[in-house]
Amino acid sequence: MSKHVEKYLHKQMDREAGKEHTIHRTKIVATVGPACDTYEKLLELVRAGVNVFRLNFSHGSHEDKAKIIEHIRNINKTEPYTIAILADLQGPKLRVGEIQGGAMEVKAGDVLTFTFEKCVGTMEKIYVSYPNLHQDVKIGNIILIDDGKIEVKVVEITPTNDVKVEVTLGGILSSKKGINLPDTKVSLPALTTKDLEDLEFILTQNVDWIALSFVRDVKDITSLKTRLTEAKSKAKVIAKIEKPEALRNIRDIIIESDAIMIARGDLGVEVPVEKVPMIQKDLIRKCIHRAKPVIVATQMMESMIDRVKPNRSEITDVANAVLEGADAVMLSGETATGQHPALVVSTMKKIIMEVEATEYNYNREDDLAPQPHSPSFLSDAICYNGCKIAKDVHADALIGMTQSGYTGFMLSSYRPKSPLYIFTKERTLVNQLSLSWGVRAFYYDEEESLDDIISDQIEILKERGFLKTGDVVINTGSTPVKMHLPTNVLKITKL
After folding, report:
1. 68 and 130 share a domain?
2. Do 248 and 279 belong to one domain?
3. Looking at 298, 335, 476, 487, which residue is catalytic?
4. Are residues 74 and 168 in the same domain?
5. Residue among 25, 54, 65, 243 flagged as catalytic
6. Alpha carbons 151 and 167: distance in angstroms, whole number
7. Domain containing 47 — which CATH number?
């Protein structure tokens, strides 16, 4: 064993658990809530297959979030896992206020009054958490409540800045239900006062990913990234796609973001529901072409909130996301408040593995050739050919090195057939890369000769049970090592 290798084996105590954890290449994101917020329950979810924990800042206190983050950090320190933490900002989520008695029935033809003055909602007046509602909506605009279960139409904007609406689709209106304005250009900023307060806390916690809700254009992303740069944060930004405006600006949003979340809940209310499947397929394709991780989210296995088996349609939904090439699939209420969090995760993992075990062609080298106009064209070509050669020689491992994460994201985007291992000296990237399809990341910070580095990486993987004598390995790297150049070397080794 080389003089360096031993210090990178501190998690070797449970080699089989570490190997088993990344056997599914499409990653699993699980939302943390009351059903799974203890150390023991979080560890149970990790062992079931979770790669990323999402903390939803629409709910819960900063104190609660700090405890959860501490638990996840401890799992990463003491267990053979690298779990990422995703902080999900609420964004300009519009809601009705408290309703008298908790709920009331509204019928088609009823006229309601929306106001920004705090009050307990009745048939006379209902508080809405949106001070600019009267300025932004126009007569005839449709407003949807509770994910579209109730639909109203604007009929009058009063001199006192209230908005009168006529119910066109009735139902039970409950307290704090969300509002969507599919016909209206919302003037609220992407980062609300609440988001800025949450962000201030998040920046003290060194989370790996920050998701920005209700992104409309690229300025929303640059605004958040500027704040992260000023705070010297290494967190990466996920743009949540749930507004029609985002779809119109999607190219620039994908380029500026570090990852994309297809948030199908609000998206399915803001756009006609029949368009969502093709939007999902198109966004996954665009993200893979830009080597940006993409998450498919919302209602993937919602029936398992209170059941022990998913609906057949949910099984197909998860399978289709895997077949389309998503980097990750996400659970929300299923793990946050559901009755069987670990069972949901293990069921989702079984679906993923069943699909990935088929002969379906995941490899994207045929339609993802390196682009000559790309500023990283030469290193892209190395990554592309690394994946192609790995397939040609039936390599047992494809190993990359990265400082920015780019090589990891690029190798992942080709969806190689060989197991993919990424080494980095940036500790934050080890967890961040847990979101990317097929990636298993390791910390390594030696900077001697490239031959020594490659030898160390192979030895680390052997010691941790990922490789054995006789295996064929493809390495990408850069030389001279200490110049930290983009990837410029490709090497084949038979162990």
Report:
1. no
2. yes
3. 298
4. no
5. 54
6. 6
7. 3.20.20.60
Q: Is 240 one of the catalytic residues?
A: yes
Helices and strands counted in the chain (H then E)? 17, 22
**What angle, rounded to 10 degrees, do the helices at 193-205 and 218-230 form?**
40
Cα separation, 321 vs 280, whole angstroms: 9
Residue 408 to residue 420: CA distance in whole angstroms: 9
pTM above 0.90, yes or no: yes
Same domain, residue pair 81 and 228: yes
For residues 402 and 228, what is the distance between their CA atoms, to the nearest angstrom?
21
Nearest partner of 384 among 487, 265, 274, 315, judged by Cα: 487
Say if residues 144 and 184 touch (Cβ distance below 8 Å).
no
Contacts of 479 (CB under 8 A, 6+ apart): 450, 485, 488, 489
Check if the beta carbon of residue 211 is closer than 8 Å to that of residue 240: yes
| DSSP string over 260-318 | EEEEHHHHHHHS-GGGHHHHHHHHHHHHHHTT--EEEESSSSGGGGT-SS--HHHHHHH
Is residue 348 within 8 Å of residue 43, measured between CB atoms? no
Contact predicate 208/428, CB 8 Å: yes
Whole-angstrom Cα distance, residue 313 to residue 333? 18
pLDDT tens for the chain, residues 1 to 495: 666 777 777 554 455 555 666 689 999 999 999 999 999 999 999 999 999 999 999 989 999 999 999 999 999 999 989 999 999 999 988 999 999 999 999 999 999 999 999 999 999 999 998 889 999 999 999 999 998 999 999 999 999 999 999 999 999 999 989 999 988 888 888 899 999 999 999 999 999 999 999 999 999 999 999 999 999 999 999 999 999 999 999 999 999 999 999 999 999 999 999 999 999 999 999 999 999 999 999 999 999 999 999 999 999 999 999 999 999 999 999 999 999 999 999 999 999 999 999 867 666 666 778 888 888 899 999 999 999 999 999 999 999 999 989 999 999 999 999 999 999 999 999 999 999 999 999 999 988 889 999 999 999 999 988 999 999 999 999 989 888 888 899 999 999
Exactly one of 25, 93, 225, 240 is catalytic; name it.
240
Q: Which of 95, 227, 290, 491 is catalytic?
A: 95
Q: Is residue 192 flagged as an active site residue?
A: no
Phi and psi at residue 218, to the nearest 5°: -65, -25
Distance (Å, whole) CA 47 – CA 43: 6
Contact status, residue 128 vs residue 96, Cβ threshold 8 Å: yes
Residue 176 belongs to what domain range? 94-180
Helix, strand or coil for residue 145? strand
